[in-house]
């Protein structure tokens, strides 16, 4: 802002006591007064004028070189600047001295030289002067003012008083510019020079300056951070780069990587050494072991004969003695249950399906939750509670509708052209015209932007656009000066009337332009047009519904009309509304229905083939299991629907995650169980009755299916305690779905197996069981009835198992997988929490370009509010000084701390000092701000002279009004206590301040800027329940920036709250959604640990084997660790989706581990034989049942249009399936073998010593801690169930 000055000149004497200018000799066409160039002796003023001059210019005493008119003009002009700097007395005093000496100093002629004059009505008037001032004064003035803040705009006072000057010379150059007609500034040019010519006899003005750290006129720490009292406070923390890194020569690595590498080398060395030692020792002990084996075989020859007979019959030998008591009970239960189901399949099928169908009735209450705050914000959320407090006590944050119009670089890496051209601004007017004319239908009424927009200062919308510099009127464009006027307003947007917006507030260029650096607004490459729209708590008055209706029409307008308009001009357009994300998420949920359906169809087709026998042309239509596979898939879907139906009936809404993830999860578990059950029945002797085969199969695999299902149910059940609603609801739905799937598998599906095998035996056609194959030759029938091991089974037994049996392969496998785990741990430290919005949205969404442009062009971050609860403003309390940042405020006050934090934005993420209603209120009350807080003689509020009724709205220019001539300032200095109001004064004047309109005469009016910053409800008691101080975050371009900025703000407010013993919290509109990422790692690790521990507990209870449970625990943990490593490689962030996938991965990993471990534990023979038997039987089922099924289904997801499916479902599921396969069918068999080495060594001791009492103790130990080798059997019959014990 420029200040008007009244000066005069006449050629003549330059000496002390003489004036260079005196009195007024004319006025310009815009009414600005011009001084007379009279070189006369200084004049003695009368007592009234002298007292007036002393009140403003205490350094001027005695004679003066100004008349009363000149002084009144000076006073009226500097009063516009005083509110900006009155909070810093030293700056204010120095600033006033500059113009007091210029206007009224009795020694004016010593440092003022009139350089040019002009004639006005035959009178000579001053047209230009040279003002000699020492550099020391200029430097002192600038240093005292350079950090003074202007609260309501979160910026420096010098941005308005000096166009952001970087030194005093730039400031003086700005002040000295001659103003154009009707523009603010000096009516003539002023040239500031440090020294006059030696021959002139003149001396530069050199009045003493006051430092901002002066004892008497010192400023607050916010305005004077260099003060000694301020520099002694703790400096803001700085980021420690590479704090977690270690450097070895030129190689720099994370410390965790280095430690893990050393640990891996040590572990592999120990393991290799132990393996070689065991190998050498094994050779030495080979003969005792052989002898012992022979002896043990001779102990029970009948048992050996039985084994031989079973091997000849190609029937797997089962070592039932290895089962725990619980497993034995389950095996015995399934033995009897299998016979009953085989005898009553229709009853079992009808009862089980009917029960689940009954649950599906709840689907009539089915609802899907799509509101982000209901999905990601749990009960008790700190951010949600703080938002609710902010919305109810202050005001809900406004809705944002935005357009970004940008130029296109001529080359891919070139600089974008400037956006500020005549054609582009006229295009912006055309766009605005269409937006203003937009109408939306809401319940039969038409809604326009004017009906819903934010109007802080009157009837005009607070649209953030460069068009505000033309009052939003196209007719003003040429009248105001076009592009030049815009560039002028970049420096004068708060002080010049023509630059003020149509809603009568200043428009910061930062909010309306993008793609510039620093304050180089003219280089901007983008227009950013923001339409703030009123928001409401709980949709009060249908405000939200009206806004949503208008927003939908606005988006359609942008697509249909605005986008072609902008493209025709060679520009780009991106756009968004408050409801855009929710609407696009709804569209995304249906975007890949076809892809998901194809995925299910592919999996169904594979399942149908996998359940059947090896294809034979002559019998394929009988031995195939298409109908059985389809029935199994329907049972899986029924279990999902039953789960959704149950929770819908109790009033719980579903989520898109449930509809997308749970079917895959339950299908994975269900298909695995289907394959295991069918293959187990196929492995039984064909000569046995069907009910005996069903019984044997259930006894063989029932315990492992039960174990796996219980572990999975418990895994998801613990997720119900997660606070995040989306994860909690998923876990609850998944737990019930897996439970229902398990029940249907062991009831309905077993019954269907009975029907299907009866169909096969009766030679009926698959899918058409009513059609029976005609009787054929015996050889053909034999082909149908004979069961031959499948290709996969033969591969597992004859190729896969022998390779893994080689001791070198075992060592390499374990070394590789442990290395993989170490790499996973190292990589997991590189996973960032968050969820990029572009990933969640459809790839063809218009928001993709919008979010890219946001990060490219925006130069300011989201608003940040520091909310203070229960502020005690009474005189007895110190809280006022603990909050404010003007003179006499505490150095560690809230606002001073915010100002200091803004000096290190890379750490604090705070871009600017805070806009302080409290500072502005105290300044507004100050007697120095004589144009602000004023009262009529009757004690009512008197507005500034440039506002009605002091200045009628139809009056062109405002002078001294008759209406307000008797107005006086609210207080004198004697009325205040240490420049602070009393409790009564505070209470009485605060509403005045909040209702006062800002204007040129008093820019500190609180209406508009602070209307919603203070909760006046109940404030009469001396306590303000809620108030806020607004600043901004730095530009936040990545999810990590959002998370880190929230964490930094919370840490900052916690520190200040403890220091001031006040309740202060930060609030920004995005906090509620990003709060989850503050402790996502903690949530994920806790729940994964609980889930894995639950699996271990279930396994330990059922198997009573510490070793088996420990092996399962180890393998599942390794799968999860490796999956985290894959996430880091593919840059998959940690969020609700990935946490759900990780929890689900524990459940699916159980499928890869439990069945193989159970099969290994009940197998007979030495280690290699047991591995071969487990892999040949159960390994083939696991590979075909879960690995290949999920693999073919997941691959289809890779063609999804939604990136969220590609990243979080295709990539993570594919990694899970491959890792599960590798760990379950490669690492697990080897680890089962390797971890039994110590047991086998102890067995050699047993055989060699031939001490049966030690043998008995060994059996007890093995039954408690792990599966023992087959050699320990035979000397005693076990009481647990076996094949031969069947009735």
UniProtKB/TrEMBL annotation:
Name used for this protein in its record: SSD domain-containing protein
Stored Gene3D superfamilies: Multidrug efflux transporter AcrB transmembrane domain
Record's keyword terms, sorted: Cholesterol metabolism, Disulfide bond, Glycoprotein, Lipid metabolism, Lipid transport, Membrane, Signal, Steroid metabolism, Sterol metabolism, Transmembrane, Transmembrane helix, Transport
Biological process, per Gene Ontology: cholesterol metabolic process; sterol transport
Primary subcellular site in the record, as a coarse category: membrane
SSD domain span: 592-755
A Pfam entry, by short name: Sterol-sensing
């Amino acid at each position: 802002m420029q200040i008007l000055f009244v000066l005069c000149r006449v050629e003549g004497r330059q000496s002390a006591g003489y004036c260079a200018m005196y009195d007024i000799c004319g006025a310009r066409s815009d009414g600005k007064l011009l001084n007379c160039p009279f070189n006369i002796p200084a004049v003695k003023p009368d007592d009234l004028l002298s007292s007036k001059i002393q009140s403003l210019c205490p350094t001027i005493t005695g004679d003066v070189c100004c008349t009363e008119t000149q002084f009144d003009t000076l006073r009226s002009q500097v009063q516009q600047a005083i509110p900006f700097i009155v909070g810093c007395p030293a700056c204010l005093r120095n600033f006033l001295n500059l113009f007091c000496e210029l206007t009224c100093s009795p020694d004016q002629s010593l440092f003022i030289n009139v350089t040019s004059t002009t004639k006005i009505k035959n009178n000579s008037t001053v047209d230009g002067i040279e003002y000699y001032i020492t550099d020391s004064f200029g430097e002192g003035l600038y240093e005292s003012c350079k950090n003074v803040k202007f609260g309501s705009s979160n910026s420096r006072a010098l941005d308005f008083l000096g166009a952001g000057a970087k030194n005093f010379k730039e400031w003086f150059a700005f002040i000295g510019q001659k103003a154009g007609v009707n523009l603010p500034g000096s009516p003539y040019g002023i040239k500031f020079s440090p020294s006059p010519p030696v021959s002139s006899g003149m001396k530069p003005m050199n009045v003493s300056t006051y430092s901002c750290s002066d004892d008497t006129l010192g400023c607050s720490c916010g305005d004077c951070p260099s003060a000694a009292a301020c520099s002694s406070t703790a400096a803001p923390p700085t980021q420690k780069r590479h704090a977690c890194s270690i450097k070895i020569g030129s190689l720099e690595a994370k410390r965790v990587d280095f430690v893990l590498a050393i640990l891996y080398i040590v572990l592999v060395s120990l393991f290799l050494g132990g393996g070689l030692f065991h190998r050498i020792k094994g050779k030495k002990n080979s003969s005792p072991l052989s002898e012992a084996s022979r002896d043990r075989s001779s102990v029970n020859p009948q048992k050996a004969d039985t084994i031989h007979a079973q091997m000849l019959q190609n029937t797997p030998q089962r070592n039932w003695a290895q089962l725990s008591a619980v497993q034995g009970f389950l095996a015995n239960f399934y033995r009897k249950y299998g016979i009953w189901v085989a005898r009553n399949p229709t009853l079992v099928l009808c009862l089980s399906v009917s029960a689940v169908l009954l649950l599906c009735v709840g689907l009539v209450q089915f609802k899907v939750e799509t509101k982000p705050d209901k999905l990601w914000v749990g009960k008790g959320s700190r951010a949600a509670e703080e938002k609710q407090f902010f919305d109810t006590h202050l005001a809900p944050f406004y809705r944002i509708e935005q357009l970004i119009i940008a130029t296109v670089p001529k080359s891919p890496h070139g600089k974008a052209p400037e956006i500020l051209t005549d054609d582009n601004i006229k295009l912006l007017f055309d766009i605005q015209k269409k937006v203003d004319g937009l109408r939306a239908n809401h319940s039969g009424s038409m809604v326009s932007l004017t009906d819903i927009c934010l109007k802080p200062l009157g009837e005009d919308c607070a649209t953030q656009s460069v068009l505000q510099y033309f009052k939003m009127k196209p007719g003003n464009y040429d009248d105001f000066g076009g592009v030049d006027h815009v560039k002028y307003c970049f420096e004068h947007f708060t002080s010049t009337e023509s630059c003020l917006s149509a809603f009568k507030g200043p428009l910061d260029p930062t909010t309306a332009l993008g793609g510039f650096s620093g304050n180089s607004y003219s280089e901007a490459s983008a227009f950013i047009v923001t339409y703030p729209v009123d928001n409401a708590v709980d949709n009060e008055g249908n405000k939200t519904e009206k806004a949503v209706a208008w927003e939908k029409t606005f988006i359609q307008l942008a697509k249909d009309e605005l986008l072609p308009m902008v493209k025709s001009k060679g520009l780009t357009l991106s756009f968004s509304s408050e409801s855009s994300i929710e609407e696009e998420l709804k569209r995304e949920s249906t975007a890949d229905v076809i892809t998901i359906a194809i995925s299910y169809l592919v999996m169904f087709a594979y399942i149908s083939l996998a359940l059947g026998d090896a294809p034979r042309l002559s019998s394929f239509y009988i031995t195939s299991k298409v109908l059985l596979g389809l029935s199994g898939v329907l049972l899986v879907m029924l279990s999902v629907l039953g789960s959704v139906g149950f929770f819908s009936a109790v009033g719980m809404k579903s989520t898109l995650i449930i509809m997308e993830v749970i079917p895959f999860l339950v299908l994975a578990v269900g298909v695995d169980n289907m394959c295991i059950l069918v293959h187990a029945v196929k492995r039984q002797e064909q000569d046995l009755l069907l009910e005996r085969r069903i019984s044997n199969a259930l006894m063989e695999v029932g315990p492992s299916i039960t174990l796996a299902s219980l572990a999975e149910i418990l895994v998801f059940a613990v997720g119900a305690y997660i606070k995040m609603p989306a994860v909690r609801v998923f876990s609850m739905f998944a737990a019930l779905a897996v439970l229902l799937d398990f029940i249907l598998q062991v009831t309905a599906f077993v019954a269907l197996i009975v029907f299907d095998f009866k169909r096969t035996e009766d030679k009926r056609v698959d899918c058409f069981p009513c059609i029976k194959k005609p009787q054929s030759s015996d050889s053909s029938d034999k082909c149908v009835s004979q069961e031959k091991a499948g290709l996969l089974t033969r591969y597992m037994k004859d190729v896969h198992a022998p390779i893994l049996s080689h001791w070198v392969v075992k060592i390499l496998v374990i070394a590789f997988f442990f290395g993989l785990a170490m790499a996973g741990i190292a990589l997991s430290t590189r996973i960032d929490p968050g969820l990029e919005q572009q990933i969640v949205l459809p790839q063809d969404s218009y928001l993709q370009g919008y979010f890219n442009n946001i990060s490219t062009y925006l130069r300011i971050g989201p608003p940040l509010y520091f909310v203070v609860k229960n502020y005690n403003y009474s005189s007895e309390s110190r809280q006022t000084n603990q909050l404010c940042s003007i003179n006499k405020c505490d150095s560690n006050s809230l606002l001073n701390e915010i100002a200091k934090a803004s000096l290190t934005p890379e750490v604090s993420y705070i871009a600017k000092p805070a806009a302080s209603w409290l500072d502005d209120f105290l300044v507004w009350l100050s007697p120095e701000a004589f144009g602000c807080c004023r009262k009529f003689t009757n004690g009512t509020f008197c507005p500034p002279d440039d506002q009605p009724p002091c200045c009628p709205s139809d009056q062109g220019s405002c002078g001294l009004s008759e209406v307000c001539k008797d107005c006086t300032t609210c207080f004198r200095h004697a009325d205040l206590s240490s420049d602070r109001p009393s409790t009564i004064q505070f209470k009485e004047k605060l509403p005045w301040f909040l209702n006062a309109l800002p204007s040129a005469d008093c820019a500190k009016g609180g209406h508009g800027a602070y209307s919603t910053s203070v909760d006046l409800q109940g404030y009469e008691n001396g306590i303000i329940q809620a108030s806020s101080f607004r600043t901004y975050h730095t530009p936040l371009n990545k999810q990590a920036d959002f998370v880190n900025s929230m964490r930094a703000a919370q840490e900052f407010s916690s520190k200040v709250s403890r220091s001031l013993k006040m309740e202060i919290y930060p609030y920004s509109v995005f906090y509620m959604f990003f709060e989850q990422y503050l402790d996502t790692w903690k949530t994920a690790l806790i729940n994964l640990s609980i889930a894995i521990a639950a699996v271990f507990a279930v396994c330990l209870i059922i198997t009573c084997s510490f070793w088996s449970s420990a092996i399962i625990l180890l393998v599942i943990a390794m799968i999860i660790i490796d999956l985290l490593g894959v996430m880091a490689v593919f840059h998959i962030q940690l969020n609700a989706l990935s946490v759900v996938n990780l929890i689900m991965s524990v459940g699916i990993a159980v499928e890869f581990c439990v069945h193989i471990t159970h099969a290994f534990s009940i197998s007979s023979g030495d280690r290699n034989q047991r591995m071969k038997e487990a892999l040949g039987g159960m390994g083939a089922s696991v590979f075909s049942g879960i690995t290949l099924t999920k693999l073919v289904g997941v691959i289809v997801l890779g063609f999804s249009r939604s990136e969220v499916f590609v990243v979080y479902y295709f990539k993570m599921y594919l990694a899970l399936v491959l890792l599960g396969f590798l760990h379950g069918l490669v690492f697990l068999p080897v680890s089962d073998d390797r971890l039994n080495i110590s047991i086998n060594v102890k067995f050699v001791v047993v055989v060699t010593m031939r001490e049966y009492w030690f043998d008995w103790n060994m059996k007890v130990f093995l039954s408690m801690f792990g599966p023992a080798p087959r050699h320990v059997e035979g000397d005693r019959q076990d009481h647990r169930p076996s094949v031969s014990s069947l009735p």
